[in-house]
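Morning F.,

Quick status update on the modeling queue. The single chain you submitted on Monday has been processed. Sequence for confirmation:
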Amino acid sequence: MPSPGSAAESVFDDPSSGLLGWFGEPWVIPQLHRHNDVELNLVAAGELHYLFGGQVQAISAGHLAIFWAVTPHRIIHTAPKTLLGVIQVPLVEFLRWKLPQALQETLLQGHMALGRDDDPGFDQRLFERWAKDLQQTPVPAVNPNPLERHRVVLLEVEARLLRHARQTAPQPLKAKPPLRTLGAPMDKAQQLARLLAERHSEAVPLEQIAAEVGLNPSYAMTLFRRTLGLTMYEYLNQHRIAHAQRLLITSDLPILDVALEAGFGSLSRFYQAFKASSGYTPKAYRALHFRG
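C-alpha cells below.
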C-alpha cells in the first residue's frame, strides 16, 4: 500500500514492489492496483472495505487479512478512526517458507484468507514494530546492518503466518452484497468488476457485460473508469495476467496453454501484456517462482 502522494498511487502495476511495512490511518486508494507480493493487512481498530477480485470484503477490528496481491484490489471505504497495519512480503520469500499447503493454496488460487488471533493487541504491537523496523533509517551505533533487521522481520512474519495456519482453517472470505451506503455508482461498478473477474478467461464482449447490469456500454465504460480508476479492458487484462501467474507457479502447463487458459487469444499478445505488467517474460517468471 503506497504512501499518500507517491508515484505508485497513480499506476496499476508496481513491478518495483518488495518488502515493506506501514501502520497508521488508511485512506481510500483512487485506483485498483496489483503487485507480486503477499500482503498481510491487520485492522487494529475500526473497519474497512476492500474491493478484491470483483467482490467487496468487509474487514473489522482485530482481523488479519492475507492475500496474494496479483489480484486487483483497492480500499474503497474506511470507518472513522480506523487503524491499519500492512506488511508486504515478496512472493519468492513467501514460497521459500514452505507453509502448510492449505494456506498456500488458498492464497495462490486468488482468495483472501481471514483470521483473528486470540490476542489482537499482540498483533498490533507486532505490526507497529515491523513497520518501524522496515521504515527507520539505520543508526550505526545501534544496528549498522538494515538487512539484518529485515531478516528478523521476515522470520517473525513467517512465524505469524504459521500460527495463523494452525489456528485457522484458511477459508476464502464470502462475497458481500453491494454496499448501498457507498452509493449507486460504486454498486454498478462493483457488479461490472465481479462479472469481469468471473469471466476473464472467456471471450465475452464488454458490451454484453454492460448489458447484464443494465447499462449502456459507453456509459458503463465511463462509469467504471471514473469509479475504479482504470478501464474495463485494463481490469479484464490484469485478471488474465493474475490467472497466468497462478498457472505458471502452480502447474507445468506449456506457456501457450497458460496463455489460452488465462483468456489471451494469442501467444504474442500474452507475452507483450505479461512482460509489461510483471517485468518478466512468462518463462523467467516461472523459473523464479515455480513450486513443482
